[in-house]
Design a protein that fits this description.
Elements lengths: L5 H16 L5 H6 L6 H8 L4 E4 L5 E16 L10 E16 L5 E8 L11
Antiparallel strand pairs: 1-2, 2-3, 3-4
Length: 125
């Protein structure tokens, strides 16, 4: 019986998906394009944030959270028959992106974390 490393398989799948969505640019590279943009432009492109907070300097933090679960079938044995024995594993795919909005309304620092970050690219006129 061949063992499948779920973490490695998922990492490859997540990278390939984000690569297709961003023309293989890293999430950090795509997000750098948003630094200096206006808060209103961010909302127009990303929609309303899932959560807004304020730090001690009065700067707003916009947080966007994208998550879902997908069920992946894996063959776990080589039993006779066309399929063998299947086991389903639920995988959470997610990304949390935070934008610090400075007091003048422009985007400053950007943070992201997750296993499937494919941020929305900023389109310049």
């Amino acid at each position: 019986m061949k063992m499948i490393n779920l973490h490695r398989a998922w990492t490859i799948l997540a990278f390939a998906s984000s690569c297709l969505l961003t023309n293989c640019a890293s999430p950090a590279t795509v997000l750098e394009g948003w630094e200096g943009a206006a808060e209103s432009e961010l909302i127009r492109n990303w929609g309303q944030p899932n959560h807004v907070s304020e730090n001690t300097n009065g700067e707003k933090i916009f947080e966007y959270i994208h998550e879902k679960y997908i069920s992946i079938p894996l063959q776990i044995s080589n039993l006779p028959g066309p399929i063998g024995q299947l086991e389903f594993h639920d995988l959470k795919i997610w990304c949390r992106t935070r934008f610090k909005i400075s007091n003048d309304g422009s985007i400053g620092k950007i943070y992201f974390e997750g296993n499937a970050c494919a941020p929305i690219k900023r389109e310049f006129p």
